[in-house]
Amino acid sequence: MTYDEEVELRAAIPALRLAIVSGTTRVTYDGKTVEYRSISEMRAALRFAEDTLAGPDAVSRRPSFATTRFSRGL
User: 3-22 vs 39-54: helix axis angle to the nearest 10?
Assistant: First the structure.
C-alpha cells in the first residue's frame, strides 16, 4: 500500500463511521465525495478499510463464533 492510499483510508474511516451512524449514504472526506448504494455497502467499505490498515493478520484475529447442535437421535 502506498502512503497516499494509507492516508486516504485513514481519512475515510471516521467519515464512513459518522455517515453510517447518521444514516446517510453520502460520505465526504479530503475534498472527495462518495455516494454509496446502501448502509451495508458502507459497512463493507469500512470493514475493508479497517482490515487493510490493520494488516494481513487482521482477519485471523477477528473473533469467530461457531454454533454446535446436538441431538439424541430420538
Answer: 140
Grid cell locating 7? 492516508
How far apart are the two ends of the chain, measured CA to CA in Å? 56
**Adjacent-strand bridge partners of 32:** 29
pTM: 0.70
CA–CA dist 48, 65 (Å, integer): 20
pLDDT tens-place string over residues 11-46:
999 999 999 999 999 999 999 999 999 999 999 999
- Alpha carbons within 13 angstroms on the beta-carbon side of residue 65 total 1
Q: Within a 10 A sphere around the Cβ of 65, how many other Cβ atoms?
A: 4
Q: Count CB atoms within 10 A of the CB of residue 12.
A: 19
Helix, strand, coil % in the chain, rounded to nearest 5: 55, 10, 35
